[in-house]
């Protein structure tokens, strides 16, 4: 029987590739996001590719009043229910430094909005006793850096949240996987110039699917970032604070 996936941030470059794979294997898809026109055409594409069902549903991380409608639609789905979070925004750090009000939205998009929805969804998955949650964080959450420390703080919050959720839901047979991409060639990194070990949305989607099969807890993609971030985390703070990496 096909499984149902709720995709938060379905219009993201990474999500689009992941969704195509799920559609091709006949899963049912609840494509959640802000841009309904884009989501509807994505849903149409998924149906053509073989999705058992594909529906566009509104989700704005900054408007939690709308979360209940998505939850209700998800609760009506039969069988195995899964969720993947791709939502995130990364304003330029200099813009946030100039306008501190941007902190709130940045943290809401990458952390508190998705976490609040997952918190609402968790009892449903616990009752079903199976399913997978994939949360896309970032290597930026592993250490606060000059270039993007507010975004990094939001992703660190998400990673800690997912770690606790994994601890909770693992007891009911539900698996939670945290994904930590390094730089990926998407809209988010356009204009940032060459990035070390940059990967593609296709490679990220492949890694995520493999990680789900292997029930990985924390997945770095590209894989080399597991080592890169280990080294970065080991740099003593007195040295790190002087670096511009
Ligand atoms: N690209 C990278 O190098 C990189 C590296 C590490 C981690 N990540 C993370 O990977 C995930 C996917 O990013 P991407 O590279 O595919 O970038 P992207 O194409 O810019 O995707 C970002 C997604 O987040 C959605 N979003 C932003 N704010 C939202 C809100 N308030 N409510 C609902 N949806 C919202 C966007 O929706 P709209 O289409 O409506 O704008 C879009 O679907 C993000 O969480 C990002 O932080 C990216």
Question: Explain this structure to me?
Answer:
With 245 residues, the protein is of the alpha/beta class. The chain contains nine helices and seven strands, in the order βαβαβαβααβαβαβαα. It has a seven-stranded parallel sheet, sandwiched between helices. Helix 5 runs parallel beside helix 6. Bound molecules: NADP nicotinamide-adenine-dinucleotide phosphate. The site of NADP nicotinamide-adenine-dinucleotide phosphate has 28 residues, from helix 1 and helix 5.
Supply the key terms:
245 residues, seven-stranded parallel beta sheet, binds NADP nicotinamide-adenine-dinucleotide phosphate, 7 strands, alpha/beta, Rossmann fold
CATH superfamily: NAD(P)-binding Rossmann-like Domain
Bin the strand percentage. 15-25%
Give every kind of bound small molecule, once each.
Answer: NADP nicotinamide-adenine-dinucleotide phosphate
CATH architecture: 3-Layer(aba) Sandwich
CATH topology: Rossmann fold
Helix count, DSSP H or I runs of 4 or more residues: 9
- CATH secondary-structure class: Alpha Beta
**What strand line-up does the widest sheet have?**
3-2-1-4-5-6-7
Instruction: Please give the domain count.
Output: 1
Number-wise, the strands total: 7
Name the overall outline. Answer: globular
Please specify the SSE layout and strand pairing.
Layout: E1 4-8, H1 13-24, E2 28-33, H2 36-49, E3 53-58, H3 67-75, E4 81-85, H4 93-98, H5 102-128, E5 132-136, H6 149-169, E6 175-181, H7 201-213, E7 218-221, H8 225-234, H9 237-240
Parallel strand pairs: 1-2, 1-4, 2-3, 4-5, 5-6, 6-7
The protein binds NADP nicotinamide-adenine-dinucleotide phosphate.
